[in-house]
Specification:
Number of helices: 10
Distance between the termini: 20 Å
Shape: elongated
Number of strands: 7
Strand order of the largest sheet: 3-4-5-6-7
Length: about 250
């Protein structure tokens, strides 16, 4: 995810450097270093923690003296609390971000949560970087990060599963896989684009294509006539949130 975000981040004015002993190449215009010692004499306005959560305590303290006076830590390490991140960064301001998968193509939704000592300038910079990857939602606390994870962080998985089941249903109706995939993904893409560009409530948009006694009404009745789909989605989000809490 760090590499995918960097492809979008580097569209800005910042100069980036990566320290990674296992990476063979870096995005164009980004300096790649194998060891921390190769950047030991440098100071950074932002250090990004884009490593596995279990590596945080081992790796990040080595960089705690490399912040400028106004520097901050930006973390995409899932499950790592602000308190833990402040400890390994020498007490520097911390901004946590939780991106979802479409951020890789600049169409993501990301949550942002900051420590109390993060300045407005630091928050503005972090938001600006993440806006290059899509929509940014600023949340008040770390519990909201877990709730965001249940809705949007895990959300692409739900949508992929919905699209898969929708495609299989279309194939069962007699279309081949290519036809079914094109119909389903095209319908999802166009419908979401229409909703995103409209100020109307989703219920109003749904009703606008649902004639009384028509085919859409029949399909919707089978899909959610007694609230089955609504209940299933609520259970889905609750299960994901509960798991996020367990992983804190």
């Amino acid at each position: 995810m760090g590499g995918a975000l960097l492809e979008n981040w580097k569209r800005g004015d910042e100069a980036f450097a990566i320290v990674d002993p296992f990476l063979d190449s870096a995005p164009e215009g980004v300096a790649l270093h194998e060891k921390r010692e190769e950047v030991a004499d440098r100071q950074f306005d932002v250090i990004v923690a884009a490593i596995k959560p279990q590596m945080i305590d081992e790796v990040m303290p080595d960089y705690s003296d490399m912040f400028t006076s106004k520097g901050y830590l930006l973390s995409i390490a899932a499950g790592c609390s602000i308190a833990r991140l402040k400890k390994v960064s020498g007490g520097k301001p911390v901004i946590r971000i939780m991106p979802n998968l479409p951020a890789a193509i600049g169409a993501g939704v990301s949550a942002l949560c900051a420590s109390e000592d993060a300045t407005e300038a630091q928050l503005a910079h972090a938001r600006a970087m993440m806006e290059r990857t899509g929509t940014v939602i600023t949340v008040e606390d770390e519990d909201a990060i877990d709730r965001f994870t249940a809705v949007a962080g895990s959300g692409p998985g739900y949508v992929f599963e919905l699209a898969r089941a929708y495609t299989e249903a279309a194939m069962a109706l007699g279309f081949d896989e290519d036809q079914a995939r094109a119909m389903v993904l095209g319908t999802l893409q166009g419908t979401v684009a229409m909703a995103a560009g409209s100020g109307e409530k989703l219920e109003t948009l749904r009703n606008s294509v649902t004639s009384k006694g028509g085919t859409t009404a029949a399909g919707l009745n089978a899909l959610n006539g007694k609230g089955e789909l609504s209940a299933l989605l609520s259970a889905t989000l609750e299960a994901a949130y509960d798991r996020a809490v367990e992983l804190r």
